[in-house]
Specification:
This protein has 181 residues and is an all-beta fold. 0% of the residues lie in helices and 71% in strands. The protein has strands at 20-34, 37-54, 57-68, 72-74, 78-94, 99-117, 124-144, 149-160, 169-180.
């Protein structure tokens, strides 16, 4: 019976390989906060990334594009809308079997439309397609359902720089599916 026991060092690693290129699609729900106003809406997007793995430690980066269906706010005096945004993030995680919990930090670039009511002319004056940068932080977990397909759940926070005197931030919960190759 003792001959059936594996010898020390002869057992294959029990972790999933997370290294290499990955691509996936995302869907979620976001909350955008600007001073004293909050707006909510669905978000859709995709990501492309690359990971390097040392035993269970996984580090990498990803580039994502996200399109919110409705993240805008209007009052009698102003209008403000997040049209879409992209993120470039560094990722670090630790694999536990088929699970990879991770943290992200990075930068974001958002495209905004905004306008303020000109009280003299009675018309809105502003800018469409104004680009603005911000920083990104988040937490997530990937789950390998096969050696090359994974599911993702993630929370992402973005704080954009002031644009037209407004500080905007988003909190987004995302789920997705991806492939590694």
């Amino acid at each position: 019976m003792a001959a059936d026991w594996p010898l020390r060092g002869s057992v294959e690693p029990s972790y999933v390989r997370w290294d290499g290129w990955q691509f996936g699609l995302l869907a979620g729900y976001s909350n955008m906060t600007i001073p004293s106003i909050t707006t909510n809406g669905a978000v859709f997007g995709g990501f492309l990334g690359y990971n390097v793995q040392w035993d269970e430690l996984v580090v990498g980066f990803d580039l994502a594009y996200k399109y919110p269906s409705v993240l805008d706010s209007s009052t009698a005096l102003s209008r403000f809308k997040l049209v879409d945004y992209a993120t470039l993030r560094g990722r670090a995680g630790y694999a536990f079997g088929p699970l990879l919990p991770y943290a992200v930090l990075g930068i974001a670039v958002g495209r905004f439309n905004y306008a303020d009511l000109d009280l003299v002319s009675g018309t809105f004056i502003g800018k469409d397609n104004a680009f603005n940068a911000g920083f990104v932080a988040g937490l997530g977990v990937d789950w390998a359902v096969t050696p090359s397909i994974f599911l993702r759940a993630e929370w992402e926070y973005i704080a954009f720089a002031t644009i037209n005197g407004i500080n905007a931030s988003t909190n987004t919960g995302l789920v997705g599916a991806g492939v590694r190759f």
